[in-house]
Amino acid sequence: MPRITGVSAGQAGPVLRVLFWFAKKRFGAVPEPFAVTAHHRGLLLASVRHELSVQRASKALPANVRELAVYRVAQTVGCSWCVDFGTMLQRLEGLDIERLKHIEEYATAEAYSYKERLAIAYADAMTANPMTVTDEQVTELTTAFGKKGVIELTYHIALENQRARMNHALGITDQGFTSGAACRVPTSGA
């Protein structure tokens, strides 16, 4: 249970009810971070606009590279909600979620391509405290993805750090978007 309970559909005004309807239609349930953030309507609306804009703008990287990096951040921060939701998004993208069980061994696991390994290592370096990103790493990423791709990757990793840290701080945990499959996927520190 989150530290701040979400706004229920019964408590929602007309605008929020429409947003809840849209979220439920798109994801099968109203995401708990959405319901919790609904206590601050301005930030919720800003977040929805931002997330939709980021989704539309993200075309430079293959989905598998972007989603693996985002998943790795969620796993590293320890946000079980983000791991659950991210696993569902990867499944809906048609990506292989079974290999997520081996993400700890990404550097040597055959399930990951060279470019995926670069992105996951970058997610690790950006999420570390303090960050451990190197000039050489960014050069290698630029060779693999181009400048636009590196900017997109960096943005998504930073954005997931924000999401995962907010959800984790508010005590928002997995919601069952993967019908229990997320429970079989290891999370850091779990």
From TrEMBL:
GO molecular function: peroxiredoxin activity
Domain Carboxymuconolactone decarboxylase-like: 58-124
InterPro entries in the cross-refs: AhpD-like (IPR029032), CMD-like (IPR003779)
Cited Gene3D superfamilies: AhpD-like
Keywords from the UniProt entry: Oxidoreductase, Peroxidase
A Pfam family hit: CMD
Descriptive protein name: AhpD family alkylhydroperoxidase
Organism (species): Actinokineospora auranticolor
Origin: domain of life: Bacteria
